[in-house]
């Protein structure tokens, strides 16, 4: 993915401002060249004591050109920056629109600090693409060609010298800078991403690092990453300074060449001496427009590297969804109807993992049924829920909801119709009320209090503060608040991933009763480790190592004395041993 392809469509939509900024920049550049040329001519002309009206005309022309230059420069800045901010806004919007469907896959494979650096830093660096990469060459070439054409009326040799200077400053100097920076391509971006990742992990794991005595090592690693970033930035700045110095040298060298060549032409009688100061001033002014080309390689490189990193982000996520992320499924689930789910010979594995997570899973959840999925840790239970939620695409097989293949369903519509409780629910910094009203902020205070009562949180007030990631909540409180959020949703499909694993048995039974009562007419699929209370389920699915081992009702599985029966016996023994120890 190139930076130009990222910007092309957005630039077409902002073509009016872009064209106006180019026009303003051209007029400002030409006005500047003519202004200083007229000033040089005015100074030279005064030596010959011209008529007063000539001086008045020249002075007036200089003042008018000064006003034109200022107004054009203002317009150029206004339209170019407005176009830039609009382009950046469109880029952010388009990027996040593409990122949202891929987010679950990306978050599972990227370090959060590195992903944050890509989303924020890389997109931010593209804001300079138009102002510092695409725009300057257009202005430089157009202004230079106009100046060369102007100079050719007085001396073709000076015009050729200006053309040579343009070629050097427009191509040779940027090439020199680019060659010097070739060895450090992307180094600053990579080191910044590494520093962001190390900082994020240090902040997230500060307590554990402190407890286990690893804080000092992590701090040293963070300082090392910071030092490498500083070194990379210094190296980058040095290459940039060399380019700017070389540009200044070429500018003065060409101006000196115009002086020498002009003196030679005047001595030969090929050019009037009154034009020498005008041409020197023109040469010195026109090279001011090309100063931006000295920094162009740095911005071009940063933009290209940022675009490539964004492209890698999409490519990695889209490869996990078999390229289906760009499609826009339009099918939606029927409103106010329970959802039937069918998994037909589903296989699934992560792109980076050779080992399959699920192998040949075939299940059917009737509309309005209640299903429990049990099995040892790592057996693939959570993956089944994630596939139904369209967070991943199956490697093989198909998933059908209400007769519609899941690939044809709109993901956001599916999520809005599903009540989900995951193992690690996220909580935002704010009040209890803020974290409950994620879907519908029109809920009354009494409704919220009733839900807190149902999940056995009567002591929580709606205005109580919740810290980022729920740091001031226990695991049990987090689970009960997550269940409360699900109870407030209006979906007819419930997907619960160990929703009560951190609750005691008494609280767990009460909360489960509230959920089952709320979902009595809905389809409910619950992953759980504890086997108590599963008698009320219509179906129990036993999963081990990604394969369906047993399926049936509680009584059926207990009668056949298979895998589920053994799990139940082990649980009873553990509970009995615990009770004996307490006694």
Characterization of this structure:
The chain has 583 residues and is α/β, with parallel strands linked by helices. The chain has two domains: 3-320, ABC transporter type 1, transmembrane domain (ABC transporter transmembrane region fold), CATH 1.20.1560; 341-424 and 486-582, P-loop containing nucleotide triphosphate hydrolases (Rossmann fold, 3-Layer(aba) Sandwich), CATH 3.40.50. The chain has 19 helices and twelve strands. It has helices at residues 3-13, 15-46, 52-109, 112-125, 128-152, 156-181, 187-204, 206-211, 215-267, 276-289, 292-320, 381-388, 411-416, 432-436, 445-454, 475-488, 505-518, 554-560, 563-582; strands at 341-348, 358-365, 370-374, 396-401, 404-405, 418-421, 430-431, 465-466, 493-497, 523-527, 539-544, 547-552. Strands 6-9-10-3-11-12 form a six-stranded mixed β-sheet, sandwiched between helices. A four-stranded antiparallel β-sheet has the order 2-1-4-5, with helices on one face. It has a two-stranded antiparallel sheet with strand order 7-8. A hairpin with a 2-residue loop joins β4 (396-401) and β5. α3 packs parallel to α11 (292-320) and α5 runs antiparallel to α11. It is elongated. Residues 320-326 and 578-583 have low confidence and may be disordered.
């Amino acid at each position: 993915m190139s930076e130009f392809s990222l910007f092309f469509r957005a630039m077409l939509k902002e073509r009016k401002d872009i064209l106006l900024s180019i026009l303003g920049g051209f007029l400002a550049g030409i006005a500047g060249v003519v202004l200083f040329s007229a000033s040089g001519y005015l100074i030279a002309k005064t030596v010959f004591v011209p008529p007063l009206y000539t001086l008045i005309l020249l002075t007036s022309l200089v003042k008018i050109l000064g006003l034109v230059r200022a107004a054009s420069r203002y317009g150029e800045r206004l339209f170019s920056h407005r176009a830039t901010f609009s382009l950046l806004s469109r880029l952010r919007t388009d990027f996040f629109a593409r990122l949202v469907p891929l987010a679950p896959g990306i978050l599972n494979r990227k370090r959060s600090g590195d992903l944050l650096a890509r989303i924020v830093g890389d997109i931010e660096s593209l804001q300079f693409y138009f102002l510092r990469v695409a725009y300057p060459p257009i202005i430089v070439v157009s202004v230079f060609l106009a100046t060369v054409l102007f100079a050719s009326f007085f001396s073709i040799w000076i015009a050729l010298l200006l053309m040579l200077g343009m070629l050097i400053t427009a191509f040779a100097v940027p090439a020199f800078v680019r060659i010097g920076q070739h060895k450090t391509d992307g180094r600053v971006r990579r080191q910044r991403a590494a520093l962001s990742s190390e900082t994020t992990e240090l902040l997230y794991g500060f307590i554990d690092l402190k407890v286990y005595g690893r804080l000092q090592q992590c701090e040293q690693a963070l300082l090392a990453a910071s030092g490498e970033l500083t070194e990379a930035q210094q190296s980058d700045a040095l290459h940039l300074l060399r380019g700017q110095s070389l540009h200044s040298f070429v500018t003065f060298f060409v101006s000196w060449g115009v002086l020498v060549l002009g003196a030679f032409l005047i001595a030969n009688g090929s050019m009037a001496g009154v034009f020498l100061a005008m041409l020197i001033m023109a040469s010195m002014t026109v090279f001011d427009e090309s100063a931006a080309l000295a920094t162009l390689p740095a911005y071009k490189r940063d933009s290209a590297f940022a675009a490539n990193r964004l492209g890698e982000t999409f490519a990695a996520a889209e490869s996990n969804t078999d390229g289906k992320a760009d499609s826009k499924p339009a099918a939606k689930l029927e409103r106010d109807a329970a959802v039937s789910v069918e998994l037909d010979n589903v296989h699934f594995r992560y792109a980076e993992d050779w080992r399959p997570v699920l192998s040949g899973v075939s299940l059917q959840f009737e509309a309005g049924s209640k299903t429990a999925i049990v099995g040892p840790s790592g057996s693939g239970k959570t993956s089944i829920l994630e596939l139904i939620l369209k967070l991943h695409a199956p490697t093989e097989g198909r998933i059908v909801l209400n007769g519609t293949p899941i690939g044809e369903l709109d993901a956001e519509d599916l999520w809005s119709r599903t009540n989900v409780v995951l193992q690690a629910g996220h909580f935002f910094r704010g009040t209890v009320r803020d974290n409950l009203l994620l879907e519908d902020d029109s809920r009354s205070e009494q409704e919220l209090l009733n839900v807190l009562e149902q999940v056995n949180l009567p002591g929580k007030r709606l205005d109580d503060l919740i810290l980022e990631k729920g740091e001031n909540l226990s695991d049990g409180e987090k689970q009960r608040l997550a269940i409360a959020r699900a109870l407030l949703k209006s979906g007819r499909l419930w997907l619960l991933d160990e929703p009560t694993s951190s609750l005691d048995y008494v609280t767990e039974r009460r909360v489960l009763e509230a959920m089952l009562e709320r979902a009595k007419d809905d389809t409910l699929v619950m992953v759980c480790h504890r086997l108590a209370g599963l008698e009320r389920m219509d179906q129990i699915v036993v999963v081990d190592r990604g394969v369906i081992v047993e399926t049936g009702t509680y009584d059926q599985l207990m009668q056949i004395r298979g895998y589920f029966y053994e799990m139940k016996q082990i649980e009873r023994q553990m509970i009995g041993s615990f009770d004996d120890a307490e006694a």
